[in-house]
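Q: I'm writing a short methods note and want an example of a predicted protein-small molecule complex. Could you take the sequence and the SMILES for zinc ion and return the bound structure as tokens? Please keep the output block clean; save any remarks for afterwards.
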Amino acid sequence: MPAKPKKAAGSGKRSARKKCPICGKPATEASRPFCSERCRDVDLNRWLSDSYRIPAAKDDDEDAD
Ligand SMILES: [Zn+2]
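A: Understood, no commentary inside the block.
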């Protein structure tokens, strides 16, 4: 078995582009994994407000959403 061919790591700019989890637009290098700082901010706020919630609530409603 030959050694596995070296993948084009580094070269080849088309790395798997992730979509912005907030709006679904392609993420940009500057704001990965988001498309913009705005979306990053949105996510941060979402995350923060989520952690502000009482974790115990999760046990209460399993079929929420
Ligand atoms: Zn976005």
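A: Remarks, as requested: Helices lie at 37-52, 57-60. The radius of gyration is 19 Å.
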